[in-house]
TrEMBL record:
Keywords: Lyase, Metal-binding. InterPro entries: Aldolase_TIM, HMGL, PYR_CT. Residues 1-270 form the Pyruvate carboxyltransferase domain. Pfam families: HMGL-like. Belongs to the HMG-CoA lyase family. This is Hydroxymethylglutaryl-CoA lyase. PROSITE patterns: PYR_CT. CDD domains: DRE_TIM_HMGL (cd07938). The keyword Phosphoprotein does not apply. It comes from the Bacteria. The keyword Mitochondrion does not apply.
Length: 283
């Protein structure tokens, strides 16, 4: 079981800038919990995501000496990937490859064809620099734009990523469009069909639908889940109304019910939740 904590996703759409020192202290608290990966920041245009314009400064302040947690940074194009790859502390580069052409243009100002070319170049860059690429199939369960969506389309994208050798693919419910009826068949089909790919679930949800979504993904074989403490966040490029991330505390409650030992330091998790309350209280 791999749990990926996503403070980057929680912070990115907030209108008021969180001071660099506050971000850094919060991330350092999260690094003590024992998550597999921390999605900590992004190397994207500060005009697009002003909240994360200080990612390099935050990275410089992180204490990685007492943690096994690996760092993931989101990038929106090859230039951002090249910048992120210069930082040896970062293990993963994440790129949002959209099943929706409309959202690809909104999110990274590219066509799908351009994004796929960037994915190939990013994967090569990761192999040269000892990192791994995580491809997020955004709008992976449908979109609000009227663009075509079907399980076959998602499979076609996955086949392309598999041919490139991309090691990790996270199906992303960017606007909370998924249901158990779409989640379960996708994971059930893709996981056995692409044994060389590690599949993840990046689910956005509401307080009343989280359980059915995580249950569907878990029972279909997914063992990599993204979450954010408090269920805060969402993609500011996707819609005017943000649909929150999967709340980490809900994920942990579900896994406890299933008897799964996450290996997390729950005292440190409690401290991180207290820190989150302070970070996000006025935002």
């Amino acid at each position: 079981m791999k749990l990926i904590e996503c403070p980057r996703d929680a912070m990115q759409g907030l209108p008021d800038f969180i001071p660099t020192a506050t971000k850094t202290a919060y991330l350092n608290a999260l690094l003590q919990v024992g998550f597999d990966t921390l999605d900590f920041g992004s190397f994207v245009s500060p005009k697009a995501i002003p909240q994360l314009r200080d990612t390099a400064e935050v990275l410089a302040g992180l204490d990685l000496s007492q943690t096994s947690t690996k760092l993931l940074a989101i990038v929106a194009n090859l230039r951002g990937a090249e910048t992120a790859a210069q930082h040896p502390e970062i293990a993963y580069l994440g790129f949002p490859l959209s099943v929706s052409e409309t959202f690809q243009r909104r999110n990274t100002n590219q066509t799908t064809a351009q994004a796929l070319a960037d994915v190939a170049a990013m994967h090569n860059l990761c192999e040269r620099t000892g990192k791994k690429l995580v491809a997020y199939l955004s709008m992976g369960f449908g979109n609000p734009y009227g663009d075509a969506w079907s399980p076959e389309i998602v499979t076609d994208f996955t086949e392309h990523l598999a041919a490139l050798g991309v090691p990790i693919v996270a199906l992303s419910d960017t606007v909370g469009a998924s249901s158990a009826d779409t989640i379960a068949p996708l994971f059930s089909a893709l996981i056995p069909a692409f044994p060389n790919i590690e599949f993840g679930a990046h689910l956005h949800t509401t307080p009343t639908t989280w359980r059915e979504k995580v249950t569907a993904a878990y029972d279909a074989g997914c063992r990599r889940f993204d979450g954010a403490i408090g269920g805060i966040g969402g993609c500011p490029m996707a819609a005017d109304e943000l649909t929150g991330n999967m709340a980490t505390e809900n994920l942990l409650a579900f896994l406890a019910e299933r008897g799964v030992d996450t290996g997390l330091d729950m005292a440190a998790f409690g401290s991180a939740r207290e820190a989150a309350a302070g970070v996000f209280a006025t935002h």
